[in-house]
Amino acid sequence: MTNVARTGQTLLVVASSMLFAAVTSAMVVRRGIGGDWVAPELPVCVWATAVLGPLASWLVLRGWVRGAVIAGGLLVVLQVLVLAELRMAVIGEAFLSVLVGAHALHAAAGVAALARWGERAGLFWHFVGALWIYVLFLFGVWA
Amino acid sequence: MAIAILIAALAGATLALFFQPRWWFPEAISAHARAYDAHFLVTLCVIGCIFVFAQGLLAWVIFRYRDRGQAVTGSDGSSALEIAWTSATAVIFLGLALAGQGIWAGVHLEGSDPRALHVEVLAKQFAWSYRYAGADGAFGRVDVKQIDDAGGNSFGIDAKDPKGKDDLTAAVLRVPVGRPVELHLKSRDVIHNFFVRELRLKQDVVPGMTIPLRFTATKTGTYEVPCSELCGLGHHQMRSSLVVMTEEDYAAWLAEAQQKVVLP
Amino acid sequence: MTLFSTDHKVIGKQYIGLALFSVFLGMLLSLVMRFHLVHPDTKVRLFQMLWPEGAPGGQMTPELYLSLMTMHGTIMVFFVLTTAPQSGFGNYFLPLQIGAHDMAFPVLNMLSFWTTVLSLVTLLLAFVVEGGAPLSGWTAYPPLSGLGKITGPGQGLGQDLWILSIAIFCVASLMGAINIIVTVIELRAPGMGYFDMPLTCWGWFVTALISLFAFAVLLPGGVLLLLDRVAGTSFFIPGGLIVNDQVQGRSGGSPLLFQHLFWFFGHPEVYIAILPGMGVISTVLSVFSGKKVFGYKAMAVAMLAIGGLGFVVWGHHMFISGMSPYSSVAFSVLTMAVGVPSAVKTFNWLATLWGGRLRFTAAMHYALGFVSLFITGGITGLVLGQPGLDIYFHDTYFVVAHFHLIMGVAAVFAIFSALHYWFPKMYGRFLNERLGKIHFFLTFVGVYAVFVPLHFAGFVGNPRRYPDFKEYEFLKSVTGLHMGVTHAAYFLAAVQLIFLFNYFWSQRRGAVAPGNPWGATTREWTDD
């Protein structure tokens, strides 16, 4: 990976982290003052998707990019299915929708980048995988 | 050269504007308002000095070092100077910040006065209404479903709550002079803002919140209340009045108004 | 195909072109507003032709005025002050000044420009859709902006398009910011350290860092607001609202939450607009004084300090919003602290002039004018930064005067200075110096005449965002003042035609410039 590609991806990671941090802090505030917070329940099959990110990362590191693209693509499809189940009128689920939706866009971009640039886009993908675990953790444990 | 004169002239014209009497604060009608004016004057003197010093220096430097074929002499850096002007400005700016905390604390950080007259203020697009607790000193429950602007119940006072029977609503805020008043600001739709220039008080009225605002008016009169947070197409017409009355006038008005209370 | 060129110089010129279009559009909107403020009952056929719904019979409605105000602010802040200094000049000159042959990601660069164009087109579409442009101001506070058409005519599709436009703009700005930061970090010429870069590069670098964090917060803020409007969520909409006699079925949202997200972006945005200009002014003052910039390192560090502190002062926009009065105390101290590096920069500019031999070119005139305006606009921040004093001035014309001087006019003077300074590099010809100076003098007098009196309307307590002042007894005293300001605004707008003529005429007919016409030492003049 060239320095330019690495620095560029690092900055993208910083910007995305900031975006997720903003939504997270909005959620903390909104949960604290709203008085109408109900934690969304995540079925076990959603938890299982946590492995897909690291799996794809492992495949990238092993040099099997096509496998990583399949694993990443599967994650995006499952995220879209999760989104379809969420109700926007319930505030906890609305926040979950925003985070899942934002993550799905990141994951789709990450998959496209893997397909286009292969291992050179690995850094961003590792971040995407970790970010998904963060989102699940946020709702599974904290919310 | 010409620009040095122009900078000096414009700075002078700006200063001169401060000596016209027409466009200035209205009369102060509370202890807070007078404290406000005093601290503003201090701040104005400080920033006025900075203004004159900085613009004057700029004009002078431009004039002094205009190209007359002279050799370039100045230096390109000095740690001593950097430290000097950094600490000088830090002291002045932070000093102002600290000196001004008193008037903020006076409005927002002091507790409720037990003698205070409590009035609920309700803002909606594009009108104000005020609710007094009545003889029992307690506000009745409100119920969104019972809101009826045409029937005079814009607060939605619950007909089933006995405490609300004597609640008095009005379109103008009337208070007795010299008595502490505590407003409870509420909005029914969007954000509005309650502003009384003569009290030097301004507070956003935010839906979903009840925000307290305390004052003690020391001069009778009628004062305009302009909405000061953009609230829609009638924002500029969302006008109300504060009437500060003598104790006797206030008592007379209250007694008369109380008799007319007809509840839905 | 040059339209989709990936050459940083072409893209830089495209951004400047976009900003030029936007600034004249924004200025025309402000003229219509200034006219209406002093002649609220005059019917104008042109208004009816332009806005049949908003000005029936030529009589401007309050909602049309408010929508013009919203669009004026949005266009000026985003498409002028954020694009020209940073994306325009930054694109063109950053690679040249650090010895890179282009930006780090040329294709991304092209994409960010066209994404910005898409954003502008989306915004302008709001003028022509049903109900017209939104009326909730450039700050778009919910619930006014979050409930749809029920809160006003432009609050339907117009407000949706507005939010969409801002979201797209965020994406474009993030792409641009990443490009500039990577270019600075990775593509500096061999041997050039960070503290060897010209201050212009520091300006663009710090601004890009600010953009990276600020727009990454505005983007989700906009998305949440859009969802409140179209998906029935309650992020910012509290329960129990009755709007237009209709009960809104929402619960628990917080209007203040939006303000926090917005101003976390909104305050740093001020520095996004002004820091690149500060870099330009430092360069121009130094070149035409025949001296190095005084206190180079202090200047660079001051920029970093402004960028960093700029992120912890957003609460000063919310002193009277109903947030905790204790946090106001903290925000106030931090706000006064962010004034210190700005003052330090002013002292360093004066010291740069000190002992020099000043050559009064047109670019130098604008730079000196910038310093004067920066002082005048900056010191009123010492009033507004104190929550106690802000109580009275919040949302009055005092604030309007303050931010127009410091953020609007000062930044525009930096753009003028940069154009006169770099035009020979960009077009191989000079902008006409005589016209430039005439334009400077008239504009300088004009901006003082427009904005200084507005402070005094603020002293009277004149609220901003009022389409007319007829309802209030106390506002009768400011009609004369506003009449004067409106005429000064006509004058100010008219003299901009001098600049416009100079800009286009000089591209073809201006005096041919030599390679390094000003005797500068930075690489864009000395290389090749």
List keywords for this structure.
A: 143 residues, mainly alpha, Four Helix Bundle (Hemerythrin (Met), subunit A), 6 helices, C: mainly alpha, Cytochrome C Oxidase, Chain A, two-stranded antiparallel sheet, 17 helices, 1% strand
Helix and strand topology:
The complex is a heterotrimer of chains A (143), B (264) and C (528).
Chain A: H1 3-34, H2 44-48, H3 52-61, H4 65-85, H5 91-117, H6 122-142
Chain B: H1 2-17, H2 31-64, H3 79-99, H4 101-108, E1 117-124, E2 127-132, E3 168-170, E4 173-176, E5 181-187, E6 192-196, E7 201-205, E8 211-215, E9 221-226, E10 239-245, H5 247-259
Parallel strand pairs in B: 1-5, 4-10
Antiparallel strand pairs in B: 1-2, 2-3, 5-8, 6-7, 9-10
Helix pairs in contact in B: 1-2
Chain C: H1 8-38, H2 45-50, H3 62-81, H4 83-98, H5 106-125, H6 157-186, H7 199-230, E1 242-243, E2 246-247, H8 255-289, H9 296-309, H10 325-353, H11 362-379, H12 381-384, H13 387-393, H14 397-427, H15 433-460, H16 479-509, H17 523-526
Antiparallel strand pairs in C: 1-2
Helix pairs in contact in C: 1-3, 1-4, 1-5, 1-16, 3-4, 4-6, 4-7, 4-8, 4-14, 5-6, 6-7, 7-8, 7-9, 8-10, 8-11, 8-14, 9-10, 10-11, 11-14, 11-15, 14-15, 15-16
Polypeptide structure, described:
The complex is a heterotrimer of chains A (143), B (264) and C (528). Chain A is built from 6 helices and no strands. The radius of gyration of chain A is 16 Å and the shape is globular. Chain B is of the alpha+beta class and 264 residues long. Chain B folds into 2 domains: 88 residues; 143 residues, Sandwich (Immunoglobulin-like). In chain B, the strands form 3 sheets. Chain B has a 5-stranded mixed beta sheet, with no helix packed on it. Chain B has a 3-stranded mixed beta sheet with strand order 4-10-9. Chain B is elongated, with a radius of gyration of 26 Å. With 528 residues, chain C is mainly alpha-helical. In chain C, helix 8 packs parallel to helix 10 and helix 14 packs antiparallel against helix 15. Chains in contact: A-C, B-C. At the B-C interface, helix 1, helix 2, helix 3, helix 4 and strand 7 of B face helix 3, strand 1, helix 8, helix 9 and helix 10 of C.
